[in-house]
């Protein structure tokens, strides 16, 4: 009996210990964007998430391919609702019910997707939107909440709304002076109160990179977690980095309005690797390693010792994203467009990043400027460059970016090749008014961060995974892409 009792107690202790270890198991969260001309199959990306310890993911829209691939994986999902749907969801609860049934209930019941949050809108109160979504955001949140309750998911799935940090400010310039912007104060309090009553968190996006890139006088070292900038002293608290100061400004705003215990999620934070001089591999590695170190150590901020869930932005690059905010918008990924590693990261416990597996590429050939080309034919040459950079991603040629040091011939070769690759190396895709030629020699400058890419082979992936879903484009997306790409090309030609 004694041995049997000992064995029972031993097994019970083992169970308790294993549960404790499981609860304490480290997991990361990230954003999975789908604005790509050559998206990897969702199954490969889900494997990429799992291989690198990502247990939570945020989608900006209910992408069917991504959601199906996330089924039965255990990965917690935050599924987003784009801003262009806010008005219809706000005005008609039946539209919200239909959206929840199609994009939440179905994937939970039929595909086993672990959906935990619905993110209503994305930075809808951003100042640059000039109040376009202010009046529709809160009613849309209310209707989505009602739809979740009707579907029997009110406890399982929580509503939130990702907001930019510009919804709060500090007149004193210190975190303790934080409060919500006067023009949206009432809407913010209504949303916070409603979310609190229904158990939903607040979600905020914080971008130290944007603080640095937008202000030439911003102290660069204050943008990083290991920086040596002069600290900001706020009463008894000393701040050594802008992330802590920014987050605690929000906490002060919540405290001032009676919501000091409101749960908060960091929906987006990261650092891009290209597009401007501050967006480079060195800075991105430094910032993201510091961020991951905090997550591993479960480090909070001076005003909140318990760390929030932090969604790294982002998983992979997106080469068809709008560049209206800046050329860096297409380069936020920890991984390249093809799932390859940009730079090493220590993920804790001696683990390093793991690249995507099973990726198939187009043949090793490039479209470049012909050695016989006469670039003095300015009209035809400008037309060729405009064509290439309107339909392909030329942001690496931006001032301060990785390929900004190329000469005029190098610029043309880079632009021609990006178009050629984006068009899947079609035979007629390397015809630029007689300026171009196909080569089997990699034209990438030696010992340079500038790389002439080869795209993944969508055809081979489609044959292997028939559930692959290409990105959806609406008319607004396409027009924004064309306009922004045209403006970029114009600036590039002026720089040349």
Automatic annotation (TrEMBL):
This is glucan endo-1,3-beta-D-glucosidase. It comes from the Eukaryota. Pfam families: Glyco_hydro_17 (PF00332), X8 (PF07983). Its EC number is 3.2.1.39. Its main location: membrane. It is found in: Cell membrane. It catalyses: Hydrolysis of (1->3)-beta-D-glucosidic linkages in (1->3)-beta-D-glucans. The chain crosses the membrane at residues 478-495. It is an enzyme of class 3 (hydrolase). Residues 1-22 form the signal peptide. Belongs to the glycosyl hydrolase 17 family. Residues 365-452 form the X8 domain. GO terms for cellular component: plasma membrane; side of membrane. It is a lipid-anchor; GPI-anchor. It comes from Clitoria ternatea. PANTHER family: GLUCAN ENDO-1,3-BETA-GLUCOSIDASE BG1-RELATED-RELATED. One of its GO terms (biological process) is defense response. Keywords: Cell membrane, Disulfide bond, Glycoprotein, Glycosidase, GPI-anchor, Hydrolase, Lipoprotein, Membrane, Plant defense, Signal, Transmembrane, Transmembrane helix. GO terms for molecular function: glucan endo-1,3-beta-D-glucosidase activity. SUPFAM superfamilies: (Trans)glycosidases.
């Amino acid at each position: 009996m004694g041995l049997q009792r000992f064995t029972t107690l031993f097994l019970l202790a083992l169970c308790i210990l294993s549960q404790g270890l499981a609860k304490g198991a480290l997991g990361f969260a990230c954003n999975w964007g789908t604005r790509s001309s050559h998206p990897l199959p969702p199954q490969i990306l889900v494997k990429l998430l799992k291989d690198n310890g990502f247990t939570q993911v945020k989608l900006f829209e209910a992408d069917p391919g991504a959601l199906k691939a996330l089924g039965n994986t255990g990965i917690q999902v935050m599924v987003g609702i784009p801003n262009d749907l806010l008005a219809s969801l706000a005005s008609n609860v039946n539209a919200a019910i239909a959206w929840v049934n199609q994009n939440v209930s179905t994937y939970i019941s039929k595909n086993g997707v672990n959906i935990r949050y619905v993110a209503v809108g994305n930075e809808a109160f951003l100042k640059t939107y000039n109040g376009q979504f202010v009046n529709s955001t809160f009613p849309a949140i209310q209707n989505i909440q009602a739809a979740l309750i009707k579907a029997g998911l009110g406890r399982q799935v929580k509503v939130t709304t990702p907001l930019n940090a510009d919804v709060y400010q500090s007149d004193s310039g210190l975190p303790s002076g934080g409060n919500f912007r006067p023009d949206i104060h009432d809407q913010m309090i209504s949303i916070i109160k409603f979310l609190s009553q229904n158990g939903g968190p607040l979600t905020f996006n914080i971008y130290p990179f944007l603080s640095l890139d937008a202000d030439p006088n911003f102290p660069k070292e204050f943008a990083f977690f290991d920086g040596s900038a002069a600290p900001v002293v706020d009463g008894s608290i000393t701040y050594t980095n802008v992330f802590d100061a920014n987050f605690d400004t929000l906490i002060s705003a919540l405290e001032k309005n009676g919501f000091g215990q409101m749960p908060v999620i960091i929906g987006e934070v990261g650092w891009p690797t290209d597009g401007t001089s501050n967006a480079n591999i060195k800075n991105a590695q430094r910032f993201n390693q510091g961020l991951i170190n905090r997550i591993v150590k479960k480090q909070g901020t001076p005003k909140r010792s318990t760390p929030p869930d932090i969604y790294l932005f982002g998983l992979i690059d997106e080469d068809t994203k709008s560049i209206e905010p800046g050329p860096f918008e297409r380069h936020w990924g920890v991984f390249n467009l093809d799932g390859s590693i940009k730079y090493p990261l220590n993920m804790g416990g001696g683990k390093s990043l793991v690249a995507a597996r099973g990726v198939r590429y187009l043949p090793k050939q490039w479209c470049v400027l012909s050695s016989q080309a006469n670039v003095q034919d300015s009209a035809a040459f400008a037309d060729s460059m405009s064509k290439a950079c309107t339909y392909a991603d030329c942001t690496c040629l931006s001032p301060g970016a990785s390929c900004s040091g190329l000469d005029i011939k190098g610029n043309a070769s880079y632009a021609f090749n990006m178009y050629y690759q984006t068009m899947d190396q079609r035979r007629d895709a390397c015809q630029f008014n007689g300026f171009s030629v196909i080569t089997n020699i990699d034209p990438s400058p030696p010992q340079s961060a500038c790389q002439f890419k080869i795209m993944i082979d969508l055809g081979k992936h489609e044959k292997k995974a028939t559930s692959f879903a290409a990105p959806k484009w609406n008319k607004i997306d396409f027009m924004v892409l064309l306009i922004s790409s045209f403006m970029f090309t114009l600036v590039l030609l002026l720089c040349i």
